């Protein structure tokens, strides 16, 4: 998200989506956070803790029927909602065509009647929404859905802009159930998915009664201007105003507390609302089949996640809500014509700059001729009057004559003496006046003034440091770049069709080249190194490559907001102004596109895209494995697979090791407020990182939650590391120098039964470890090693002690010594993947037993099974 190259890859992918017809703009109901001013994606709602149990007010509302028909006299339709703030937006009621309805007396209003669905009525009597004497009540009338469809009712709130010939009527809808409410569903088109779809079908007005900040629109009666959510919580006062208003008008039937699971913004904990937004979508539904197929080829550890948690998630019909209305992020590369709404998706920087055309003027840069500062290698910002040398004057004169053919219109120059003298010579030859500008001065290094250039180079040894750090009261390269860019963009604003010569010093010219060329710092340093020792030689003239496009305040080419939003170009269709849409892209896309964007694919040499191939050409793909916690089934695991599938590729990873969450020892989530957090640094400092790691690997199988108990880490430390270490120390006590074992091997030695036994134990273990590691079953791979370490110490070493201490002959000692060293060395290898540091130390001490000793255990060969040394019996 930060680097230009990364963004360029993302743009390329988005353009590819567009070409495939997968990118679309829609009016869609989205989970919306009024505090953050953003929609939440489905995988954001899938984050742990998004859903919380809350107590809301559900409310039963009378909708007064407007009808000449006698049977509807003084009669209301009874409806229900758990989101009272949507009531001013009501424009329809929905019922199911297959349901039956009852007309009953209104228990609270004499001579008035209520209509609701038959089964729901029975349930509501049970739930005591109606008085208990209603239990045996005979309804006045049983009605069919048909009798109600098309009925008009009085609007609850007299909202002018919601009125239409279709508003405030009863419609049929198949989503209405008997499980909740009254079987008559309150419909506010902009605040629910079912509502919106129904409104779309009927052609109801699509107008908001609440703005995007959660405030009622001013001209909504009774509640205009009020907030529905304040300070991350539902605004109870506003809700009360709604109830009071409805109560006064006789619409409020009953308020019943209602406990339910309600989604909240994972970022700020504000309850989300369902809200119709203009948003950009990626049509994941169009590739859903392929997504499910791609998943089938992934090896999931544990395997049940494939068709369980992850597989089920993939099956759900949903498009990717792709855009966010935020400041920081990858800008959506969509430009829209203000006039004809034509859309252009930009897939690369080249494509963008092509739209912008060429700079208005032609620019040349010239470095001053050789001066005394060059000869003396001294830093000078014009304080001392250093003149051009004779050689310097000559070279400038020669260059000036060459410049005649370029028809220079304007000369700009730094006012430092060596540039001034250069400009004077050029001015005379070209017959043009010189305009001096302080922004063209050499980099300001006051604390080095008069010192040698070497002193500066020693204080700032790398180019990176010169970009980033300022000497006392002086400038960094970025500062220089900011001022030369401001100079150049002024010229571009002020002049047209001019040939302009800029006379300056090495660093400002280098920074001009970077800024104008649109290079990032890396490229700037590369270009400088290519030209060492100087970016531009004294007296040299060059044409300045100038690429139009967004620059930030430091003159750097920058695709982020707000710079990119200033970029406009002409519409191909109508000649109108194309402006970028304001949205940025969902950050989950940035991470999901990682396999491509991290390599700046497909822009670097060797990269290629062939839509007929199931993988990108020129980069490593797919990855062997990915490992993350289980919550990423709706996060990173998902977006990685989705982006690849949308591009027509196979899965970007072959194996997934899905990890359970780490909890406290009682299985509770660790939290600062409860105070049950285990400080990982404390554990690592106490027992070593390898013991902590081993514990986490072996505590439970990978996807199971891990109830972290510090006492158990101590156990692991004692049971494995202490024993292994003591075994090593014992062996080391009898250590020979490696010359003594040169030429020996296990086949040549006469092995005792005990020697043969421990070797068999090792190879038996090796087989299990290898098999399980190949299957990414880590815990199952490590547990047998614990037994081997135990056997080595408790049986082999204990029973071999005498052979070390008082051997009967040399062979007896050598055999035991060799076998123990050999086994220790091989244990180092098989614990290396899980215990990198301890393994490295053990290997370094025992590598003379390796067939092919390496500098590190991590580049040594995995042990091979040796049939001859394995005796099952
Ligand atoms: Zn929020
Ligand atoms: Zn247009």
Write the layout of secondary structure elements.
Elements: H1 4-19, E1 23-33, E2 38-39, H2 42-45, E3 51-66, E4 75-81, E5 92-95, E6 100-105, E7 113-117, H3 118-126, E8 141-144, H4 145-148, E9 152-153, E10 169-172, E11 185-187, H5 193-202, E12 229-230, E13 233-234, H6 236-248, E14 252-263, E15 273-282, H7 288-296, E16 299-301, H8 304-315, E17 320-321, E18 323-324, E19 334-337, E20 343-345, H9 349-356, E21 362-367, H10 372-376, H11 390-403, E22 410-413, H12 417-430, E23 434-436, H13 453-459, H14 463-468, H15 477-494, E24 499-504, H16 506-517, H17 521-530, E25 541-543, E26 569-570, E27 577-580, E28 584-585, H18 587-592, H19 594-597, E29 623-629, H20 636-646, E30 653-659, E31 662-664, H21 680-687, H22 689-699, E32 706-708, H23 710-733, H24 753-774, H25 778-805, H26 810-831, H27 836-846
Parallel strand pairs: 4-7, 5-10, 16-30, 21-24, 22-23, 22-24, 29-30, 31-32
Antiparallel strand pairs: 1-2, 1-15, 3-4, 3-9, 3-14, 5-11, 6-7, 6-8, 12-13, 15-17, 18-28, 19-20, 19-27, 21-25, 26-27
Helix pairs in contact: 7-8, 7-20, 11-12, 15-16, 16-17, 21-22, 22-23, 22-25, 23-25, 23-26, 24-25, 24-26, 25-26, 26-27
The protein binds zinc ion (2 copies).
């Amino acid at each position: 998200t930060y680097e230009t190259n990364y963004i360029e890859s993302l743009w390329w992918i988005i353009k590819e989506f567009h070409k495939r017809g997968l990118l679309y703009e829609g009016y869609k109901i989205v989970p919306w956070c009024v505090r953050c001013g953003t929609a939440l994606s489905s995988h954001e709602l899938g984050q742990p803790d998004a859903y919380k149990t809350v107590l809301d007010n559900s409310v039963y509302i009378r909708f007064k029927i407007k009808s000449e028909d006698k049977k509807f006299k003084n009669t209301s339709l009874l409806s229900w909602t758990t989101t009272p703030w949507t009531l001013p937006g009501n424009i329809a009621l929905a019922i199911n065509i297959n349901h039956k309805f009852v007309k009953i007396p209104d228990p609270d209003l004499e001579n008035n009647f209520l209509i609701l669905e038959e089964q729901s009525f029975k349930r509501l009597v049970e739930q005591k929404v109606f008085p208990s004497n209603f239990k045996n009540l005979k309804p006045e009338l049983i009605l069919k859905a048909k009798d109600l469809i098309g009925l008009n009712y009085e609007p609850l709130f007299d909202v002018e802009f919601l009125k239409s010939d279709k508003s405030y009527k009863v419609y049929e809808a198949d989503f209405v159930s008997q499980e909740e409410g009254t079987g008559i569903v309150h419909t506010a088109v902009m605040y629910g998915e079912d509502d919106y779809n129904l409104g779309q079908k009927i052609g109801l007005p699509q107008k908001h009664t609440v703005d995007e900040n959660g405030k009622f629109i001013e001209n909504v009666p009774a509640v205009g201007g009020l907030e529905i959510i304040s300070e991350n919580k539902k605004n109870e006062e506003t809700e009360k105003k709604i109830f009071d208003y409805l109560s006064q008008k006789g619409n409020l039937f009953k308020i019943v507390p209602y406990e339910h699971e309600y989604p909240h913004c994972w970022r700020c904990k504000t309850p989300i609302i369902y809200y119709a937004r203009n948003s950009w979508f990626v049509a994941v539904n169009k590739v859903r089949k392929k997504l499910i197929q791609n998943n089938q080829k992934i090896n999931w550890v544990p395997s049940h996640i494939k068709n369980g948690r992850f597989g089920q998630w993939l099956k759900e019909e949903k498009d990717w809500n792709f855009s966010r209305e935020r400041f920081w992020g990858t800008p959506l590369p969509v430009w829209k014509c203000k006039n004809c709404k034509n859309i252009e998706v930009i897939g690369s920087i080249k494509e963008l700059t092509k739209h912008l055309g060429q700079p208005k003027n032609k620019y040349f840069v010239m470095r001053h001729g050789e001066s005394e500062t060059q000869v003396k290698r001294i830093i000078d910002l014009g304080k001392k009057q250093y003149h051009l040398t004779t050689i310097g004057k000559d070279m400038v004169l020669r260059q000036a004559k060459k410049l005649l053919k370029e028809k220079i219109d304007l000369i700009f120059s730094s006012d430092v003496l060596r540039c001034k003298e250069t400009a004077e010579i050029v001015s005379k030859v070209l017959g043009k006046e010189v305009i001096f500008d302080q922004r063209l001065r050499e980099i300001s290094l006051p604390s080095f003034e008069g010192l040698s250039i070497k002193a500066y180079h020693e204080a700032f040894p790398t180019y990176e440091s010169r970009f980033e750090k300022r000497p006392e009261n002086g400038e960094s390269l970025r500062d220089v770049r900011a001022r030369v860019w401001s100079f150049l963009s002024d010229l571009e604003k002020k002049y047209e069709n001019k040939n302009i010569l800029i006379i300056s010093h090495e660093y400002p010219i280098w920074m001009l080249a970077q800024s104008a060329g649109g290079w990032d710092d890396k490229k700037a340093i590369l270009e400088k190194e290519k030209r060492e020792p100087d970016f531009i030689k004294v007296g040299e003239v060059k044409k300045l490559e100038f690429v139009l496009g967004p620059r930030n305040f430091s003159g750097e080419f920058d695709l982020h907001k707000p710079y990119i939003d200033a970029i406009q170009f002409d519409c191909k269709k109508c000649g109108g102004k194309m402006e970028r849409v304001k949205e940025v892209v969902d950050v989950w896309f940035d991470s999901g596109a990682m396999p491509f964007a991290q390599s700046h694919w497909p822009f670097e040499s060797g990269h290629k895209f062939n839509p007929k191939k199931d993988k990108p050409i020129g980069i490593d793909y797919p990855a062997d494995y990915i490992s993350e916690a289980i919550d990423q089934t709706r996060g990173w695991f998902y977006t990685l697979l989705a982006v690849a599938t949308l591009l027509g590729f196979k899965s970007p990873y072959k194996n997934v090791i899905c990890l359970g969450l780490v909890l406290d020892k009682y299985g509770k989530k660790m939290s600062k407020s409860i105070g049950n957090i285990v400080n990982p640094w404390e554990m690592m400092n106490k027992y070593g990182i390898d013991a902590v790691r081993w514990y986490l690997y072996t505590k439970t199988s990978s996807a199971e939650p891990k109830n972290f108990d510090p006492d158990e880490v101590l156990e692991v430390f004692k049971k494995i590391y202490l024993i292994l270490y003591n075994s090593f120390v014992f062996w080391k006590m009898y250590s020979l120098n490696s010359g003594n074992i040169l030429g020996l091997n296990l086949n040549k030695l006469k092995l005792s039964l005990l020697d043969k036994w421990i070797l068999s134990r090792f190879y038996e273990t090796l087989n299990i470890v290898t098999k399980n590691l190949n299957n990414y079953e880590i815990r199952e791979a490590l547990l047998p090693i614990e037994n081997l370490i135990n056997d080595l110490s408790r049986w082999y070493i204990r029973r071999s002690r005498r052979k070390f201490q008082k051997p009967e002959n040399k062979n007896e000692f050598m055999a035991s010594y060799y076998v123990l060293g050999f086994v220790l060395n091989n244990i180092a290898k098989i614990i290396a993947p899980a215990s990198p540091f301890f393994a490295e130390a053990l290997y370094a001490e025992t590598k003379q037993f390796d067939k092919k000793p390496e500098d590190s255990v991590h580049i040594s060969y995995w042990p091979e099974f040796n049939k001859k040394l394995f005796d099952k019996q």
